[in-house]
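Q: I have 155 residues here and want to know how they pack in 3D. Can you give me a structure?
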Amino acid sequence: MLLSVAPSAVAGSHVDLVDYPTSEANWDRFYDLEAALMQGFNRICADTICAGDYSNYRVMQVRCAVKRLSGTVTGCAWVVAASELRVHPSTGEVEVDNGRWVCPVDLLPGVPVEQFHAALSGPEGGEGAFPGLGRGLFDGLLGCLQGAGNQGRQG
């Protein structure tokens, strides 16, 4: 006897924003959004959130979860990496110091995908007030980057 499982039960209740409403349907739109967020991060990094142990911070990736049936964004996360290189004066060895942080995006669950995109593609992008939050998406990064994260320091 063969058992059949409904596709929605197998697929799960959430999907990556890239794959909403169907596989890769939001691909171009999401990657344009991710690129804009990365550019915004680079623009504000030196003056505000990147004053730490490293001189080279980069957003590696942004991902958002969407509740499949309601079409609402339930959460996002940034992965930020940083590095510092220096040459040891006695040995000539290039020493590597790096860090990595996974920073959740502080947003209220239930923001419709269209409203999410509209807010982030507006003139202020991630720096403007996000729906229901009263602050921008970059605001939560400062606290995250000041935390220990999963730093790759060598002792």
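Q: Anything worth noting?
A: The helical segments are 7-11, 27-49, 113-120, 141-146. The chain is about 25% helix and 30% strand.
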